[in-house]
User: Fold this.
Amino acid sequence: MIYFITDAHLGCRAIEHQRTKERKLVRFLDQIQTKAEAVYMLGDMFDFWFEYADVVPRGYTRLLGKISELTDNGIEVHWFLGNHDMWTTDYLERECGVTVHREPCLIEIYGREFYLAHGHTIDIEPDDWRTRLMFRIFENPTIQRMARTIHPHLFINFGLGWAKRSRMRHQAAGGETPYRGEKDELLVKFAKQYLVTHPTVNYFLFGHRHIELDLMLSHDCRLLILGEWYSRFTYARFDGENLIMDNYIEGETEV
Assistant:
């Protein structure tokens, strides 16, 4: 069985009961570990993650320990970088045994083709130059090296504070934008265009948007946007034949 989750935003100062949500995620991973061959985490598992050479952010001990246990037991864990955790270097790979993906991937699973991505580099309006510029600045190696000269206490608190303010502004403006429809939802538009040149893709899976969407693009291609893991606790599982998206309710959901 293959599992997919995304957007836990652990450590977010604008989301209540973060420690409880981390424990819930760890219990979910504990529950699936006897069935899972691989777990794909599609980005923004942390609300802010920035690695120094010898320092990693505090607050995620339970999750990092569980991921290490999974990989130690031969379960593949794939970690896709999102817009909140793009500053990963080698800690997760070297210490936890995960496979880090810095770009979207087209991958074969049980004989089916999956296009997997967080989605933040796709879900940008063509004229939104501010967001494109911000991502270029964040991804710039020189800027990252300069940021590492700032004391971790100062810079990590700055990053978490920025993320909190961004989420609170987003909530004040009405929260997550509802599904825009096939013609205007950028992830859907991208997938349809990608299918023109890659007609063998069977599934597109995205995070980032924090909405749940299950859409047939053609008779043999399906798109899922996987919600999030701080209120809906959305996940998907694939057994080689069926791809099912569900919401994890502890003690009730059969994973």
Notes: The first helix runs from residue 18 to 32. The chain is about 35% helix and 20% strand. The mean pLDDT is 89. The CA atoms of residues 125 and 184 lie 10 Å apart.
